[in-house]
Amino acid sequence: MSIIELLAPARVMPILIVRNPDEGVRVAQALYDGGIRVVEITLRTPAAVDAILAIRQAVPALTVGAGTVVTPGQVEAVVAAGAHFGVSPGFSEGLLRAVLASPLPFLPGVMTPSDIICALEFGFSVMKLFPATQAGGIPMLRALAGPFPELRFCPTGGIDARTAPDYLRMPNVICVGGSWLAPEALVAKGDWEAIRSLAAAASALDTNSGSTAH
């Protein structure tokens, strides 16, 4: 499947930092039970790759992405773990060449028009705007729609339950990423029901009314 097909059911994609595979499975199951269908496991802990494999096995209906993929070696590792797709906060030529040589659908991170042009040269038309708030947020997405009308973005960075609906109303946004669905304090307490409730609220976000003006 293409990256846009994989992300289409997401709307809100939880970004998770996991300390061990068992914790990752419990968080993923709670999110899935709350209506979330796509998650991103960041490669920020030694347990991340093993957690991707464990979640794929324990919650097979969940689409599992690997985030913070920044080296060719990590591309190989997450493919071996069964990740459905990869995400980067930025990119290098070497990283994108490794991605294109692999079967991994990929979401390269961009922040500027120059980043976008470079990613376009490698054939990518769906990108992660990161960090979204610092990059200009909704006004930036509106500005980018002019010179790049064909592009779609997954903004992440500084987005929460309050601002997510405004982002999702933007025509060039296919989903948003955020860490608010599985706060570290709730994970540490093992409060899976609270995480399920946050997931249910995110799955029911109203994106059909209101203004996108900030």
Summarize the structure.
Helices cover 43% and strands 16% of the residues.
Describe the fold and architecture.
The longest helix has 13 residues. Helix content is 43%, strand content 16%. The protein is α/β, with parallel strands linked by helices and 214 residues long. Helix 2 packs across helix 3 and helix 2 crosses helix 11. The strands form 2 sheets. It has a 6-stranded parallel β-sheet with strand order 5-4-3-2-1-9. It has a 3-stranded parallel β-sheet with strand order 6-7-8. The termini are far apart. The protein has 11 helices and 9 strands. The protein is globular. It has a single domain, classed as Aldolase class I (TIM Barrel, Alpha-Beta Barrel), CATH 3.20.20.70.
- Termini gap: 35 Å
CATH homologous superfamily grouping: Aldolase class I
Q: In CATH terms, what is the fold-level topology?
A: TIM Barrel
Are there runs of 5+ residues with pLDDT below 50, and where? 209-214
Which CATH class?
Answer: Alpha Beta
